[in-house]
Amino acid sequence: MQLQEVLYGVAITNLVGVTSREVSALVFDSRLVAKDVVFFAIKGTLSDGHAFIPATIEAGASVIVCEVIPAVRDEQVTYIEVENSAAALGIMASNFNGNPSAKLQLIGITGTNGKTTIATLLFKLFRELGYKVGLISTVENHINDQVIPATHTTPNPLALNSLLQDMVAADCSYCFMEVSSHAVVQHRIEGLSFSGGVFSNITHDHLDFHVTFDNYIKAKKAFFDGLPKSAFALTNVDDKNGMVMLQNTKASKKTYALKQLADFNAKVIENSFNGLHLDIDGADVFFKLVGSFNAYNLLAVYGTAMLLEQDQLSVLTVLSRLTGAEGRFEYVVSPQNIIGIIDYAHTPDAVQNVLNTIQNIRKGTEQVITVIGCGGDRDKAKRPVMAQVACDWSDKVILTSDNPRTENPQTIIEDMEKGVSPTNKRKTLSIVDRKEAIKTACHLAKPGDIILLAGKGHEKYQEINGVRHHFDDKEVLVEQFNLIS
Ligand SMILES: CC(=O)N[C@H]1[C@@H](OP(=O)(O)OP(=O)(O)OC[C@H]2O[C@@H](n3ccc(=O)[nH]c3=O)[C@H](O)[C@@H]2O)O[C@H](CO)[C@@H](O)[C@@H]1O[C@H](C)C(=O)N[C@@H](C)C(=O)N[C@H](CCC(=O)O)C(=O)O
Ligand SMILES: Nc1ncnc2c1ncn2[C@@H]1O[C@H](COP(=O)(O)OP(=O)(O)OP(=O)(O)O)[C@@H](O)[C@H]1O
Ligand SMILES: N[C@H](CCC[C@H](N)C(=O)O)C(=O)O
Ligand SMILES: [Mg+2]
């Protein structure tokens, strides 16, 4: 492709060299550079891509997109200076792939919790309504029935636009994608044409990256600020910051709520282990998803489908049959009637919601045993809070490892223990090995008891020092259930 075509829409602040040249690919990692590629020098959290410019030219890069043109230059190379290389990458990745997001209806979902659930339900719903659909999510990406493994909640601009292009080639009319706050700040979604944006909620998470809650709110809001006039912006007004998201958007503002009047309303009539009974916009419907937090997710899905002009009855009929995303309030029952719940709750609010749901639907005397850890190299401030919430709403808590990543798992557990009050101490155990922790929970449980395995949901690995070892909460739980039967 000609460099000039790839540059469409990029604000260039300085240029050295020719723009009428063929480029073979776009690359932002020096280790992947080949002949005639455009290399993007991006300032990251660990290193500065500008340091790799000489090495990429050596390896064949013919165009460099950077924030400061180097003083020492190669005459054969074109240097393009921009204000933000990551933002330029987003726009150029779109151009390079033929602007696929403008050729389908792209809906972005953001918020601390519920993104995967909402995006997955929308994907399943629109498939069942007969459309060709794409999904970009934490668990997996989809192009109709084809599954493409996910590495991030929101992929980098090259992977993202290439996926979108494949969706367009497969004739998809819709794509539902999760938009993480990291993706907004790192410009992974720059240059995309969204037809709609959905906000679920915002609570404590990712303060390692955003530093303050205010910055975290701003990151989510920036997604709505960037939506075009032609799009819709659907927000949860029961969330304290729901309206903040829409303050500066040009998109058409729409709301949903359970507790106040909104464009889309629902009321929980009953919440049990069998599912949710809702009054949704005046219709009485049963859903398979469990937990009142899922009433919000279902309402967001319903509102989005209505804004995409789908038939109300068909939408509710299909939605009522659907199950949620893998590892979200998934449960198995042991031969002795112990209930095991696998849930991806990895924020204080999610842990609280899941445990409240369990409290609301338990029959009375059974114990709730929670197995919980916190991820390493992630927000440390949420660790004591997650432990405290787990203790406040469980009869026994086993503090264990999640993905320790590069941290010492024992230190993470000690951070969690700081949130355990003296009175709660006697109901907690700390077991570093997650498998041992699950095993212990199974041995402590009596028939009728409920075990919650929180934090890892669908994940099939445990990341320790950069190595992902096979680990699957559900697999371990089922194995233990069968061993004790
Ligand atoms: C904190 C974070 O988001 N990091 C992401 C970021 O990496 P980074 O900023 O640390 O990059 P860096 O290592 O400092 O390097 C800077 C630049 O130099 C380049 N480089 C680096 C080394 C080298 O030898 N040569 C070279 O060219 C890099 O390619 C990069 O362009 O950019 C990388 C490339 O796109 C991402 O893979 C990486 O995701 C890391 C692995 C990650 O774990 N991210 C998580 C936190 C994340 O993004 N999570 C959200 C979901 C959160 C949620 O809502 O729950 C997600 O969307 O998945
Ligand atoms: N609407 C909601 N409000 C509060 N908690 C929720 C909601 N939906 C789901 N949860 C809880 O959050 C967990 C994660 O849900 P989900 O995977 O849908 O969120 P996510 O936003 O995609 O998370 P991630 O940021 O990791 O991608 C669930 O397992 C559940 O415990
Ligand atoms: N997208 C989230 C996932 C957290 C999942 C949890 N299992 C952990 O490792 O902390 C993150 O990267 O922060
Ligand atoms: Mg997700």
UniProtKB/TrEMBL annotation:
Q: List the catalytic activities from the record.
A: UDP-N-acetyl-alpha-D-muramoyl-L-alanyl-D-glutamate + meso-2,6-diaminopimelate + ATP = UDP-N-acetyl-alpha-D-muramoyl-L-alanyl-gamma-D-glutamyl-meso-2,6-diaminopimelate + ADP + phosphate + H(+)
Name the needed cofactors. Mg(2+)
This protein's major location comes to cytoplasm
* Top EC group: ligase
Superkingdom per UniProt: Bacteria
Query: According to the UniProt entry, what is the EC number of this protein?
Result: 6.3.2.13
Extract the PANTHER family matched here.
MUR LIGASE FAMILY MEMBER (PTHR23135), UDP-N-ACETYLMURAMOYL-L-ALANYL-D-GLUTAMATE--2,6-DIAMINOPIMELATE LIGASE MURE HOMOLOG, CHLOROPLASTIC (PTHR23135:SF4)
Q: What is the official name of this protein in its record? A: UDP-N-acetylmuramoyl-L-alanyl-D-glutamate--2,6-diaminopimelate ligase
